[in-house]
Amino acid sequence: MPDQAVREQEAIRLSVVVPVKNEAGNIAPLLAEIAAACAPLSPFEIVYVDDGSTDATPAALAAARARHPELRVVRHRESCGQSAAVRSGVLAARGEFVATLDGDGQNDPAFIPGLVAALKAAGPGAGLAQGQRVGRKDGRRKMIQSRIANGVRGRILKDATRDTGCGLKVFRRAVYLRLPYFDALHRFMPALVAREGFSVVHGDVVDRPRLTGHSNYGLFDRLWVGILDLAGVWWLIRRRRRVPQVEQVETE
């Protein structure tokens, strides 16, 4: 049995990373959906990152581990934000491919296999499959703020992505680890992946209402919060001139 466990761990190709903060009521139903959606991609793992929750989220995750052996849990002692939680999950992940989705249930895990397939079909030169929401279920004010932010970002960064705020993404772990880390990184991934010389593919995903509770993240939708990050990413793109094509030189 130990040898079998080692072989299964080595065979993991997909890690599903879910950042959560105070989402106790959403843990069990969303986990069940992720497990069902990713069953055709087995073996896989699910990495939940508890970003300093102060509700019953830790207890809900502990109970879920008994039902989901593929579940691993990482915890921040105090809340560090969504980008930090995603990064902690990616660092802990063992798969070549990483899927991320929000922990509130608005991102439907049923779209993960399609994004994985799209990224693989695009070949090794593709670094990211970005979900783009249709049928948004957010309130009118938040949708207007998001539309403005996406429009300004698109005009400045020219990343050919209408909805970078969608938490549902699939990317190559090695590509993610090449990106400069900063708060709100997950909001700018298409532009930064392209900066590293990789292409980005897109897939429409159906948005849905959160399962329970209220939003604990999402401040970027207020345009002024992300303006400095936007300027910084623009600077990074301007400074990157050519991506080296590196080849191993074999000794004769």
From TrEMBL:
Example of a GO MF term: glycosyltransferase activity
Enzyme class: transferase
EC number: 2.4.-.-
Keywords: Cell membrane, Glycosyltransferase, Lipopolysaccharide biosynthesis, Membrane, Transferase, Transmembrane, Transmembrane helix
Domain Glycosyltransferase 2-like, first and last residues per copy: 15-176
PANTHER family associated with the record: UNDECAPRENYL-PHOSPHATE 4-DEOXY-4-FORMAMIDO-L-ARABINOSE TRANSFERASE, UNDECAPRENYL-PHOSPHATE 4-DEOXY-4-FORMAMIDO-L-ARABINOSE TRANSFERASE-RELATED
The protein's name: Glycosyltransferase
Source organism (scientific name): Methylobacterium ajmalii
